[in-house]
Amino acid sequence: xxxxxxxxxxxxxxxxxxxxxxxxxxxxxxxxxxxxxxxxxxxxxxxxxxxxxxxxxxxxxxxxxxxxxxxxxxxxxxxxxxxxxxxxxxxxxxxxxxxxxxxxxxxxxxxxxxxxxxxxxxxxxxxxxxxxxxxxxxxxxxxxxxxxxxxxxxxxxxxxxxxxxxxxxxxxxxxxxxxxxxxxxxxxxxxxxxxxxxxxxxxxxxxxxxxxxxxxxxxxxxxxxxxxxxxxxxxxxxxxxxxxxxxxxxxxxxxxxxxxxxxxxxxxxxxxxxxxxxxxxxxxxxxxxxxxxxxxxxxxxxxxxxxxxxxxxxxxx
Length: 317
Fold this sequence. Notes:
The chain is of the alpha/beta class. Helix 2 (39-55) runs antiparallel to helix 10. It has helices at 5-22, 39-55, 70-77, 92-100, 135-144, 159-171, 183-191, 202-210, 258-273, 275-284, 299-315, and strands at 28-32, 59-63, 85-90, 111-120, 122-127, 150-153, 176-179, 197-201, 214-219, 246-253, 286-287. The protein is globular. Helix 6 (159-171) links the parallel strand 6 (150-153) and strand 7 (176-179). The protein has 2 domains: 25-119 and 246-315, D-Maltodextrin-Binding Protein, domain 2; 122-219, 3-Layer(aba) Sandwich (D-Maltodextrin-Binding Protein, domain 2).
């Protein structure tokens, strides 16, 4: 006997609802748009460890580097909107990329925000034996040696690339930018003396500065970073217009059911409230978002603001 259409729809909706309520029933893949070792990767691993406890399932990391994170986001945009593929994004991958890569196969509408997980400080650092001791010294050295200074970053379109661009826009100097597949490889080359400096998040570069493997010249924020008390702010260093506060957020493919997004958001809230995440973030100079900033609704205005900002920034130089 054939089931009435109305009854079939009710049963189908009931089954879908039950599946969402049971979510997750298997491991979740978190795509990280950069190589291992950079700020986004480290933040993702710390937060995911606590999220997994709340969700009752493992979160498996997949580092997908290349093209400033757009390779990873292209993959994420094609994933099933079922909550089993999530990714960590930032102002580079989710905002600046639209001004840098004109042929992207996704738009901001291709993703749904789950919530902010961190805010980070931006730092300009040089190798330990670089001749300039200060930011003003670096600028003077660069002007005397056009194109000779080489600053590494995590790839065109990454947050670190934007730090470099913001610095160049304010300093008005001729410096060569060197692109890597992530902040980790760039930092390794800095420590090895293969490049002169890096534009990076304090999250990844602070340990090298503290260990004397690199020298921090400026933090591009209104206040100093607690773990880098000896590194001046950009204003203190004489370049007040050099400001770049960064963020990281978790996203899912558009169309992911609202109950699943809510479940993931609850896991983020539990994670960033944990003593483990707060302690680890404190050690690595990352900031836990305020309670009022944990709603998914906070993220779209950040993305829109940064798309406009970086569109203008890309026009300069």
